[in-house]
């Protein structure tokens, strides 16, 4: 009987040690997220009127306001008409970086496009917005 009680106690203590691992992981990730932070100059840019079939680069600027370096790990445009580029080196605390989205409109009219940015500073993907109006290219023959 004594052996069963000792075995049950050991089993209970063993299981309790596994349940303590998750809270420690959660605390560590919260500290890492709090250590690095970014502030965007603008999360939405209205480019106004742009000519059809002429690439238009739009630059989103951000500043690292945290205590550790920020690394941009991925930037994705919402369509094939938006090419992206970004600061590829780690951005030190107090320094700035950029994400550039180059929009090449084939169709005239209003548009709204998004750019998704993944960094080590935020747990969720930051979605930046570009909007404006594409003006049709002039067609016709001059006489």
Q: Rough shape?
A: elongated
- Spatial strand arrangement across the major sheet: 1-3-6-5
Distance between the termini: 108 Å
Task: Count the E strands.
Answer: 8
| Rg calc | 25 Å
Given the helix and strand composition, which structural class is it? alpha+beta
Order of helices and strands: HHEEEEEEEE
- Low-pLDDT stretches are 24-29
Strand proportion? 35-45%
Question: Biggest sheet, in brief?
Answer: 4 strands, antiparallel
- Report the total helices: 2
Mean pLDDT: 83
Percent helix: 10-25%
What does this structure look like?
With 143 residues, the protein is of the alpha+beta class. A four-stranded antiparallel beta sheet has the order 1-3-6-5, with no helix packed on it. A four-stranded mixed beta sheet has the order 2-8-7-4, with no helix packed on it. It is built from two helices and eight strands, in the order H-H-E-E-E-E-E-E-E-E. The chain is elongated. Helices cover 23% and strands 42% of the residues.
């Amino acid at each position: 009987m004594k052996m069963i009680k000792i075995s049950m106690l050991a089993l209970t203590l063993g299981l309790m040690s596994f349940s303590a691992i998750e809270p420690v992981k959660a605390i560590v990730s919260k500290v890492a997220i709090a250590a690095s932070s970014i502030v965007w100059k603008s999360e939405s840019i209205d480019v106004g009127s742009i000519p059809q079939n002429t690439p238009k680069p739009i630059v989103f600027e951000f500043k690292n306001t945290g205590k550790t370096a920020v690394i941009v790990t991925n930037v994705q445009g919402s369509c094939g008409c938006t090419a992206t580029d970004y600061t590829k080196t780690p951005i030190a605390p107090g320094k700035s970086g950029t994400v550039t989205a180059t929009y090449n409109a084939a169709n005239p009219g209003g548009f709204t496009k998004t750019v998704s940015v993944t960094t080590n500073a935020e747990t969720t993907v930051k979605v930046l917005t570009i909007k404006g109006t594409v003006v049709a290219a002039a067609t016709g023959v001059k006489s």
